[in-house]
Write a structure and sequence with these properties.
Radius of gyration: 31 Å
Helix content: 25-40%
Structural class: alpha+beta
Strand order of the largest sheet: 1-2
Number of helices: 13
Largest sheet: 2 strands, antiparallel
Distance between the termini: 95 Å
Shape: elongated
Strand content: 5-15%
Length: 395
């Protein structure tokens, strides 16, 4: 693109763009501007491959890899890698909103917030063209970014970078507000949430019904459904409904049979990442949950809660037929008790009455703690048998 000849009226900015009304004082500035029309991005990051139209943008990008934050807020200690971001941040303290909408009374602290891009399919609006491109993939199903390690695919390069850290263990974001907590994390979003735990940062959102508090308004709305009972997400296959979209996606795997999470040690696969983490402890022997009263340790929080009842004496499960109460629900995967139960049922002197679980809550007792106590109890409720002699049969 050749610069237009300067005129007397444009002596301060003699270089004019042939496409739009942009003018500048330097020829290299005009070349950089021309790339906003051509889309050319000749400057590439040698670490992640991201390209930029100017060398300045590339230098700013490098700081995301080094973690260097040259600019600091004088009010709260906030630090960032770009001077423009610091200026925008300062407005959170001053309340300044210099950018005004020409149509309504809306004002903003950032110019980008005035620009809107709309989705042609659902009407979704956002402030950047890149966000609109990423959103469009939620309709098309396109996931162009793939993990080289596990095959994970996603819609944005930033999501892939965050995912890669689950393999490398890298946590490049560090809390620098105080020298005490030393908090590190894999995403800037997690760091922003953490910032709110420090005094002087953005306040938490509190539930009007209970004492629940959170750092994001969206989380408070989700929590509110535990009180209202609202379940806006419905399964297309069955009548299952839930309060969170993430739960619906997990539920869908019960129909598709999809088990995307695989154990690195054995052939175990599962549909939820949380289940894989719990399973991994069967190999590592890790027991992160400890009892405050005794030395008992276990690999699952649910087991610790059940164990705690041996100290408190709590028995939340009640029989519908009599006054019997117990501390656990059934765990049919207990093979030892299964064989004990089968042996008992084979004894003609002590036939097992046909009682459904709905008729006797005690049938669902955790049987490996009190072998055959469910059977003893059910027999007592149904036939009045005092249970004497059952110990001899079972033993």
């Amino acid at each position: 693109m050749e610069p237009s000849l300067p005129s007397a009226s444009s002596s301060l900015k003699p270089y004019a763009c042939d496409t739009c009304s942009y003018r500048c004082s330097r020829s290299d500035g005009l070349k950089e501007h021309a790339r906003t029309h051509t889309g050319e991005k000749p400057y590439a990051c040698n670490i992640c491959g991201t390209t930029y139209a100017t060398s300045r943008s590339l230098k700013k990008h490098f700081l995301t890899h080094t973690g260097e934050k040259l600019y600091a807020c004088d009010t709260c200690g906030y630090r960032c890698s770009q001077s423009q971001r610091l200026k925008e941040h300062a407005r959170t303290h001053t309340g300044e909103k210099p950018y005004a909408c020409d149509v309504c009374e809306y004002r903003s602290s950032q110019l980008a917030h005035l620009k809107t891009y709309a989705c042609d399919i659902c009407g979704y609006t956002c402030t950047t063209s890149g966000s609109l491109t990423s959103h469009t993939r939620t309709h098309t199903g396109e996931k162009p970014y793939a993990c080289d390690t596990c095959g994970y695919t996603c819609t944005t390069s930033s999501s892939l970078k965050s995912h890669t850290r689950t393999h490398t263990g890298e946590k490049p974001y560090t809390c620098d507000i105080c020298d005490i907590c030393g908090y590190t994390c894999t995403t800037s979003c997690s760091l922003k949430k953490h910032f709110r735990t420090h005094p002087g940062q953005k306040p938490y959102y509190a539930c009007d019904v209970c004492e629940y508090r959170c750092s994001r308004l969206a989380h408070l709305k989700i929590h509110a459904r535990t009180h209202t009972g609202e379940k806006p997400y419905a399964c297309d296959v069955c009548e299952y409904r839930c309060s969170r979209l993430a739960h619906l996606k997990i539920h869908a795997r019960t129909h598709t049979g999809e088990k995307p999470y695989a154990c690195d040690v054995c052939e175990y696969r599962c549909s939820r990442l949380a289940h894989l983490k719990i399973h991994a402890r069967t190999h590592t022997g890790e027991k992160p949950y400890a009892c405050d009263v005794c030395e008992y340790r276990c690999s699952r929080l649910a087991h610790l809660k059940i164990h705690a009842r041996t100290h408190t004496g709590e028995k939340p499960y009640a029989c519908d037929v009599c006054e019997y109460r117990c501390s656990r629900l059934a765990q049919p995967e207990c093979e030892r008790n299964y064989y004990r139960t089968s042996f008992f049922l084979s004894q003609p002197a002590h036939p097992m009455p046909e009682i459904a679980a709905s008729d006797c809550g005690g049938l669902r007792l955790m049987m490996w703690e009190h072998p055959c106590s469910i059977i003893d109890h059910a027999s007592f409720c149904a036939s009045g048998n005092d249970g004497e002699g059952l110990a001899e049969v079972i033993s």
